[in-house]
Model the fold of this input.
Amino acid sequence: EIVLTQSPGTLSLSPGERATLSCRASQSVSSSNLAWYQHKPGQAPRLLIYAATSRATGTPDRFSGSGSGTDFTLTISRLEPEDFAVYYCQQYDRSPPRLTFGGGTKVEIK
Amino acid sequence: QITLKESGPTLVKPTQTLTLTCTFSGFSLSTSGVGVGWIRQPPGKALEWVALIYWDDDKRFSPSLKRRLTITKDTSKNQVVLTMTNMNPVDTATYYCAHFEDYYDSSGRYYYSGLDVWGQGTTVTVSS
Done:
């Protein structure tokens, strides 16, 4: 079973700053199956990045994904007020099919 | 436009069975490569995968919940139904359903969409 560990647990930053969020897998995962989500209180999670680096429809270009193997990163180049939220990485296994979520990183206003 | 919406009871008693329905539009769950997932979030905790159902009726469950879960689809009604038996207060959570696609295209390239469209979620409290 693959475990996804996200760090840091909380990131305190100011609007305009750069945010770097880490997702580490306990074993190598296919980049094709790695996604990132944004989750705000009272709302459904929103897909930001799929296939590790591809922005989903409507994702602003200040969000970028990178990485391969066991280490993946979500970068927000310049934080906007609406970006303060919890972010989750998620991995999909095809054989046998299953989903795994990381524990989340909260990006809060400093 | 793809939409999904969860429905079901807001309160269940311990040991009861929970039945949740995901009603969707904008796609068919009989189209090759399409799936619906259930994900939950207990209060103050992270997202947790619950179950998957695919276009070909393949079904997969979280190992920790597998013995308690059933998932079915009704393609004529555009619905997916999740049942969870023997509910416990630790199952208190917001439950979401979400659409995804998983397939190889004509050139052999693999594609996984991520959970690209989510329902609004339904909150279930387990309490006597």
